[in-house]
Design brief:
Blueprint (H helix, E strand, L loop, with lengths): L7 H7 L5 H12 L5 H8 L3 H9 L6 H11 L3 H6 L3
Length: 85
């Protein structure tokens, strides 16, 4: 089936907005209670401060870090961003 050519504005209008606070909660859930922010951040190759901002929803997670998280926990990037499998 031919879908036609979409303009970027049409694509972005249909893409759901990411709730970064909820993403942060999922990230905190993945980290668990056995790992400190400092240890977890080191495993992801980021600073503890940056992980804290991610977990609080104050900073968007970049593609490289998002991919590392997805691979480490065998989760899809879609689940991390939306909670949907």
């Amino acid at each position: 089936m031919y879908m036609g050519i979409y303009r970027a504005s049409e694509i972005f209008m249909t893409t759901p907005k990411i709730d970064w606070k909820t993403v942060g909660r999922r990230l905190r859930e993945l980290r668990g209670f056995d790992s400190t922010q400092a240890d977890f951040a080191r495993q992801l190759g980021i600073s503890q401060g940056q992980l804290s901002r991610y977990e609080k929803g104050k900073s968007e997670i970049g593609a490289q870090v998002l991919l590392r998280i997805a691979q480490r926990f065998s989760k899809s990037m879609e689940w991390i961003l939306t909670g949907k499998e």
